[in-house]
What does this fold into?
Amino acid sequence: MSPFATYLRELRCRRGLKQKDAAELLGYEQSYISALERSAKGPPKQNFVTRLIRVLKLSAAERVELEEALRKSKRQVSLPCSAPAEEYELLRELEPQLGRLHPVQIKMIRQVLSLPQAFFTTVPEEGTAKMSAGQTEVMMT
It folds into this structure.
């Protein structure tokens, strides 16, 4: 379930609305609201978001939460032109695993990504990463 799907459902429930009621208020089919809440559809276009904000009278805090949920629910990733080939390869290796990762794998990936860039003094070469002074070399297999 995407963060947007979860947040949309929370907003609707907080307002005491059924999907049918929300759909009527927003001017959409109930099936569309259902598909958004099940993540069967990706995040909606801006006109839906604008209407949602206006019709449900979202507070400033709710708008911030909505924008964050939309940002986190983005399904497409774009690599910068300057990305090295290794990052392209990593993305291609990760892609077939998405939707099937174990929570432990997700936690481990996040831990590695949280390492400060200064931790590494050079770009990994031939499966190893050189560490800054006082650190040991890490084997990347």
In short: The radius of gyration is 21 Å. The CA atoms of residues 26 and 55 lie 7 Å apart. Confidence is low (pLDDT under 50) at residues 131-141. The longest helix spans residues 60-72.
